[in-house]
Amino acid sequence: MQLENIRTDEYAFSAALRSCSDLALLRLGRQIHGLVIHSGFASNNFVSSSLIFMYSKSAILDDAMKSFEEADKTSSVPWNSIMFGYAQHGQAQAVCSLFDQMLELKVPSDHITFVGLITSCSHAGLVDEGSEILNTMESRYGIPLRMEHYACGIDLFGRAGQLDKAKELIDSMPFEPDAMVWMTLLGACRIHGNMELASDVASHLLEAEPRQHSTYVLLSSMYSGLGMWSDRAIVQKEMKNKGLSKVPGWSWTEVKNEVHSFNSEDGAHPRMEEIYETLSLLLHNFPMQLVHEETTGAINCELSNYGH
Prior knowledge:
- The chain is built from 16 helices and 2 strands.
- The chain is mainly α.
- InterPro entries: E_motif, PPR_At4g14850-like_plant, PPR_rpt, TPR-like_helical_dom_sf.
């Protein structure tokens, strides 16, 4: 578009910035930000929201806030974006402060606003505060609860290990829970090692989406973590019979203007030996209790597969 002298509009800028966010291309995103300023789109809701998202994802919250300050604040769009940015980094007090400013300025909130609020409480471990928001958002603010709000509430209780309350919340829903809701609870069961509830949740998931590989992978991981090898073998056999396999996750990072990509059990990177040696060094030199259980298991698995 630049070479052909085609005018770049707000939708093109927004799409390009979102792509930079997804691929962790902060350097290129900053260049596009410069074009945004030059083109006069910095206050556009679509563009400012994408800028906030990009900087938040890179944990550069100061720049995210600068983009928010330049946005048109009469709409909930930029407010929601900056609230999600702070929520993802566990800064619940900042999110609540922004919400208070919205109310003071009489900016209309929407269902997305409350997803951000409950998410921030979930990530910060503020169970009582998040529960209060969930219970009063319809009566106090006139926002009916949707499926995503229930999913956030289940994540709120699940992260705190209150699995009984999470299950009670599902049972209280006025509509049938979807796969997202069940998967959220299954993830919490995995973290806290509740195999009994996990089996029940998995039965709902397998009925709703019998070809969803994530359910089988989570169950298999839980069984192996508890030493239930025969049950793990049954799950893996069922996956094989259905022709399912684990879809490897990919990660990207940019170092000295070069993008490096990695996937699970990767051995293709030219500096892979140094990478695994560094991982091994980190594991030996830092207390294991400081490393999240899931991350530790994944790293140990990687090192084992690589031969260390």
